[in-house]
Design brief:
heterodimer, A: 326 residues, alpha/beta, Rossmann fold, Alpha-Beta Plaits, 6-stranded mixed beta sheet, 4-stranded antiparallel beta sheet, elongated, B: mainly alpha, 0% strand, globular
């Protein structure tokens, strides 16, 4: 059963199509991820779903309510962890949770019990009475996740939940997210530009770029679809080499880039000599060969023609432009 | 959406009180600053006589309402700054995404800001009594309190309007000092209105803060340029307009 249903959602600013005709569904209980570079439209989509922004066109149903018509019913049933930290650092952890609970109209007894429970869930009971300004980055994130859960939401939105955290802390946060998905039986919608994060956490992902969804599926399926193994060949005369490879029957997928070719196949050990022989016969000089199991990075490369990191500079410029329109 | 959510109003207020009570440096400076103004100016210029001053009224009596106004004006306008602050630090998103009307948020914030401003105004009043200002009966304190609230509301509304138009904290501070110092200094806080040259007095007449200072003088020392009901009427109308505009602009602001 789908708990979020998005239909032809669009958000246009003057000269930027931030979200350009996006449709998808999220099932109850799953962890669903939006994977894409900065400025791809992930945060804008979330802001529309949590009723902070009005869509230009199209609509969505969240927990059965329309985002345009019933924002209050949605707000009561969702929790959000924003991309930027959103805690009051002059208050203690417990006071931040208490503030949240009262804003959501929780009664005293229920409030106090729930504060204990969520603090326990993220292992912050002992830090409850410390001011936020003395919290580390990881502790702040954990408290924000706890806060998002305070009012028993059915869906938790996480916008780049581990942005700016060190790899070790990132792991810890991942485990908390997995854990609460199971224990609290809560649906999770997260955005990320970290491949490993999407791969490790998500039951299904959408790859999003320039405001459009390119594909939606299970991470394992997306990877397997490229072939069991992926080989990237850097060589001279990329054009000729790819023409030749395309004729080979064992090639399951092929994608040509500026100076390299990515080929998906299986039993790569047996195919490698064939590739080298083929190149020698046609006077193509192979500079390097890289063999590995496909990752989501390859999937992203396959659908967009770029690596996700290559466009960071470009997209941060786009992001800044968009920011000015707000 | 319910128009007013009292628990939300209360917790917005509570948050500001907690922040205020933890800001020790601010509390101390709030106490010291008016003390300096009142003692150095008030006692130093004690023999000064201004046109219009009735006999029996000392210079420090004229000065005290001006300093009270000053100490209310700044923390009130800075409610707008706290909105920008929350925006910059992301906390505003947490507030705006709650299932609570924007009106409740504005009211909670305004009451919080007004409370801190009034605490500071009352500190000045207390200091002035120590320094020998003759304050009349309890009724005059009640009236003075009303005027303090009205001055605070006008200034908060003004701050909210500026905040909704500004992107940065620096920009806000610049605009505020551009407006607030002239408004304060042209309200005759340090002298009587009679003492001003006529062109300056005309400017003072169109300055809303003048009616605050005058109203406080009327209620505290029973001396004023305008009858007290005029001061009161001007301020109540202005505070309604400014708060209305402030809430309207806050409502419209997106994040």
């Amino acid at each position: 059963m789908s708990i979020i249903k998005v239909e032809n959602l669009k958000k246009y600013y003057k000269d930027v199509k931030a979200v350009d005709d996006v449709s998808f569904e999220i099932n109850e209980g799953e962890i669903f991820g939006f994977l894409g570079p900065n400025g791809a439209g992930k945060t804008t989509t979330i802001k529309m779903l949590v009723t902070l922004l009005r869509p230009t066109e199209g609509t969505a149903k969240v927990v059965g309510y329309d985002i345009k018509e019933k924002p209050d019913d949605i707000r009561n049933n969702i929790g959000i962890v924003f991309q930027d930290p959103a805690l009051d650092d002059r208050l203690t952890g417990k006071e931040n949770l208490d503030f949240h609970a009262r804003m959501y109209g929780m009664k005293k007894e229920k409030r106090e019990k729930r504060i204990k429970d969520v603090l326990n869930l993220v292992n912050l009971e002992e830090k409850a009475n410390i001011l936020i300004k003395n919290y580390s980055g990881g502790m702040r994130r954990r408290l924000e996740i706890a806060r998002g859960l305070m009012h028993f939401p059915k869906i938790l939105f996480l916008d780049e939940p581990t942005l700016g955290l060190d790899p070790q802390t990132r792991r810890v946060i991942w485990d908390y997210i997995k854990n609460l998905n199971e224990k609290e039986n809560i649906t999770i919608f997260l955005t990320t530009h970290y491949m490993e994060e999407a791969d490790y956490l998500c039951d299904r992902i959408s790859i999003i770029d320039y405001g459009k969804i390119l594909i939606t599926d299970k991470p394992s399926k997306l990877k397997n679809q490229l072939g069991k193994d992926v080989i990237t060949i850097t060589c001279s005369n990329v054009g000729l080499c790819s023409e030749l490879l395309k004729k080979e029957k064992w090639v399951e997928s092929i994608k040509v880039h500026d100076s390299s070719i990515t080929v998906g196949t299986k039993d790569i050990e047996k195919k490698l000599p064939m590739i080298i022989k083929l190149a020698e016969k046609n006077n193509i000089e192979i500079k390097s060969i890289d063999i590995r199991k496909p990752t989501l990075e390859d999937v992203f490369l396959y659908y967009t023609g770029r690596k996700i990191r290559e466009q960071q500079a470009d997209s941060s410029e786009r992001f800044r432009r968009r920011f000015r329109h707000h | 959406m319910k128009l007013l959510n009292f628990q939300a109003i209360y917790v917005m207020w509570l948050r500001q009180m907690k922040r205020f009570s933890r800001d020790k440096a601010r509390i101390i400076s709030n106490f010291i600053q008016p003390f300096f103004f009142l003692s150095v100016l008030g006692l130093g210029l004690a023999s000064t006589r201004f046109p219009g001053m009735p006999s029996g009224v000392e210079y420090i009596d004229i000065l005290t309402p001006g300093i009270i106004t000053m100490s209310i004006l700044f923390p009130s306008v800075f409610v707008g700054l706290s909105v920008l602050w929350d925006k910059q630090f992301g906390f505003l998103q947490e507030v705006l995404v709650a299932p609570v009307s924007r009106l409740s948020i504005v009211i909670g914030r305004t009451l919080g800001g007004a409370t801190t401003a009034l605490i500071q105004g009352l500190i000045v009043l207390f200091v002035s009594i120590i320094l020998g200002v003759f304050v009349q009966l309890s009724l005059s304190l009640v009236l003075a309190f009303v005027f303090m609230v009205l001055i605070s509301f006008v200034a908060i509304g003004f701050g909210l309007i500026i905040a909704s138009k500004m992107e940065t904290i620096e920009g806000f501070q610049f605009v505020v000092s551009l407006f607030i110092f002239p408004l304060l200094f042209l309200s005759s806080p340090f002298s009587t209105l009679d003492a001003l040259p006529s062109w300056l007095r005309i400017i003072a007449f169109i300055n809303p803060i003048t009616y605050g200072v005058d109203g406080l003088r009327a209620s505290l020392i029973n001396y004023s340029y305008f009858p007290i009901y005029i001061d009161f009427s001007v301020l109540i109308i202005l505070s309604i307009i400014m708060m209305g505009l402030g809430s309207y602009f806050f409502n419209k602001s997106e994040i």
